[in-house]
Amino acid sequence: MLKISNQELMNIRGGAITWKTLSLIVGGVITFVIGFIDGFKRPLKCNK
Questions:
Q1: What is the DSSP letter of 42?
Q2: What angle do CA 39, 43, 45 make, to 5 degrees?
Q3: pLDDT at position 48
Q4: pLDDT tens string 13-28
Q5: Rounded to whole angstroms, what are the CA distances from 15 to 18, 19, 30, 33?
Q6: What is the pLDDT of residue 18?
């Protein structure tokens, strides 16, 4: 097994939130909020 230096350890990147991940999260939250408000404004009954 190879040992890496402290400098190489500092350059390792992983698990960072990218702009793609952030945009997916923001889009999901916006969609949920719109659906939540729409549910209060226009409640639809279940057809039984």
A1: S
A2: 130
A3: 65
A4: 777 778 888 999 999 9
A5: 9, 13, 24, 27
A6: 81
